[in-house]
Design the sequence.
């Protein structure tokens, strides 16, 4: 059963599945166990990117979508993105920008801080009270972590789930940080899924980091009982790996995998599930233009979308 602290800031959920209540604000509760799902993260108010990702998920007939947070912040469509995530996702975790809008931005640069205050005002200026209350209600009770089916899901890192950055270069410049985060994984956790840096790829506890195109099977990684992994699912709305395309992941059930890929053979009692990184082009020009047309948002937040940085 789920549990929340007094501020609705922490939640333990196992297994995962959504059962929404029919009255008032949706209540995120969980029942039957599922394994096949899509994981999205770091939408950052980019409606064009989110709609493109959801269309691809629908094309794949995937019914379960989990969000690792930062639905809002930076982009020009916070209300629309929040509404889509509430309606389409099983849950969303608390990201640092979600937290900044609900509470206060701390340790943000000037552009990010201004975007947080502007986003807050946009949500507060919603003329329909039911919509306004629904969005604030959800933002106020986003969980910090969810775990199920051998996976831990957080926005940032296992040891600091909201705001610790795990950068690829940390495997060389700060390997102790990576190793310590692996120590925070319990025996039941085969892998941890994160976002936050907007850079997709797979950390192993050597430590090492492989971006999707440098994996032994490009864009595909099989999570097995033989090794633990921390996997960054990338960003829907603001990629920062010099690739402007959106990125999300698909988790396949045991025995299933992307076409043309043969997952490793494991024993009947061993853990193996396959993850696929998906990249998608979207209307970057339209998303950037909305930012340029919003005086309160820094133009750089739109310009960087073209460069994936």
Sequence:
């Amino acid at each position: 059963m789920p549990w929340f602290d007094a501020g609705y800031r922490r939640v333990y959920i196992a297994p995962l599945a959504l059962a929404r209540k029919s009255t008032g604000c949706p209540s995120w509760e969980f029942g039957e166990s599922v394994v096949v799902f899509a994981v999205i993260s770091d939408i950052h108010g980019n409606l064009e990117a989110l709609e493109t990702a959801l269309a691809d998920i629908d094309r794949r007939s995937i019914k379960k979508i989990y969000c690792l947070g930062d639905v809002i912040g930076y982009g020009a469509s916070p209300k629309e993105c929040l509404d889509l995530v509430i309606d389409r996702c099983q849950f969303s975790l608390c990201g640092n920008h979600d937290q900044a809008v609900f509470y206060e931005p701390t340790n943000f640069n000037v552009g990010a801080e201004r975007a947080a205050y502007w986003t807050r005002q946009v949500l507060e200026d919603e003329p329909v009270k039911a919509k306004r209350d629904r969005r604030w209600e959800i933002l106020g009770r986003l969980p910090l972590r969810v775990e199920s089916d051998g996976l831990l899901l957080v926005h940032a890192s296992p040891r600091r789930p909201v705001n610790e950055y795990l950068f690829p270069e940390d495997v060389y410049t700060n390997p102790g940080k990576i190793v310590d985060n692996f120590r925070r994984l319990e025996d039941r956790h085969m892998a941890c899924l994160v976002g936050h840096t907007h850079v997709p790829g797979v950390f192993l506890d050597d430590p090492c980091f492989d971006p999707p195109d440098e994996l032994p099977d490009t864009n595909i990684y099989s999570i097995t009982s033989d090794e633990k992994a921390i996997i960054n699912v990338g960003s829907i709305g603001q990629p920062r790996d010099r690739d402007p395309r959106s990125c999300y992941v698909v988790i396949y059930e045991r025995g299933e995998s992307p076409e043309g890929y043969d997952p490793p053979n494991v024993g009947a009692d061993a853990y193996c599930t396959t993850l696929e990184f998906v990249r998608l082009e979207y209307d970057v020009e339209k998303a950037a233009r909305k930012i340029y047309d919003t005086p309160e948002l820094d133009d750089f937040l739109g310009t960087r979308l073209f460069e994936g940085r």
About this structure: The mean pLDDT is 88. The first strand starts at residue 3 and ends at 4. The first helix runs from residue 47 to 59.
